Amino acid sequence: MLTIGIAGGTGSGKTTVVRKIIESLPPNEVVLLPQDSYYKDSSHVPAAERQFINFDHPDAFDWTLLTQHLSMLRRGEAIEQPVYSYLTCTRLPETVHVEPRDVVIIEGILALCDVNLRDRLDLKVFVDADSDERLIRVINRDIVERGRSVEMVMERYERVLKPMHLQFIEPTKRYADLIIPQGGNNQIAIDILTMYIEKNLRQAGKL
User: Fold this and answer.
1) How many domains does the structure of the chain reveal?
2) Beta carbons of 113 and 35 less than 8 angstroms apart
């Protein structure tokens, strides 16, 4: 099994990179563990206060559960992946049943932050993008997918996203084996990453 961590700032193009990798490989070769699914449950916090939770801080994630699930998949065991709601900022009762596959990708802003998780990764990737490009993507995404106004997005960017990126996300770039500039638009880097995965699968007799 090949385990890959793909990190990068909010709006950097991580999801696009992951999608292109999955599309280039045979069906059912990849398990994706979105780090966002492993936010700590905030149902105990009053609804009016949840909007002030710092979701870009390492403390917002359930690292223990994420690391445990990765270890289970590596042992060939299925997991029940949590489902997180951005609208209510709570973990939903239902889960997603995930069977182990030959490639496991953990994708999220802080996928390379936790040392215990990082030590279990075979390949560490950082998706890089200009801060202005990331902001534009965040505005478009949060308005369409999360029901926020432009004013809300900009306030959150200045208060949380920008300082957390500089303090926690950007420094993890030094742990990366591969840095992909220009996010999902860098097809050459994505092709190199895909070839690396295919080479490992062939060596393991999976292709």
Assistant:
1) 1
2) no
